[in-house]
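Chapter review: from sequence to fold.
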Amino acid sequence: MLTGSGLPYHPPFIPKPFAWYIFPVNLILFEPQELGQPLPLRDDRAIHLLKVLHKKPGDSFDAGVLGGKLGTGTIESIGTDGTLAYVLDLPAEPLPRLPIRLAVGFPRPIQIRRLLRDLSNLGLCAVDLMGTDLGEKSYRDTKLLTDGGAQAALIEGAVQARDTTIPALATYPSLDRPLNKRRLCAAIGKQLGVPVALFTQVGPHQIHRAE
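The token string follows.
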């Protein structure tokens, strides 16, 4: 079909339904407190195993424990209520994350989830979100940092990368706090003649928020 100018007509791009863009699941990740408990029928991981991968009792899948080891899981049985029982064999330690700590000015809340997911996927060891003079101050009040959304985004990135670890996440009201901490640590390290950590270490399930 040609347009009035004689050029070929290309119909406008129409996105497919959102489900088409669901992130790839390359690892079934469990939290430590879930071990030994069957997956509920409506759990996203159970749905992925049964509906997407078409797994059945006796089949294996790639698995890991958040902050722990990785290996394989095997479906033992599927209960009459749809719950999925499994056993795990996790002999391998995850590879260490890259020794890179990235400082980022607070983006729009709608972008934070995608940003954290991608940075986790890349293998960074830590991410610091900071307020900036030109950034919108309301961005710092995003509920993603308190309702589990940030944690979920970091886990999504790890699952894509087939990793069981996630970056440490910290927030700061401005760049001054970490810079002052860096100067202080450098001065202490020079006096003591030993390396001093620049930032307080936080665990894989924590979000450190400096006031």
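Two observations follow directly from the output. Residues 7-22, 196-211 have pLDDT under 50 and may be disordered. The first strand starts at residue 28 and ends at 30.
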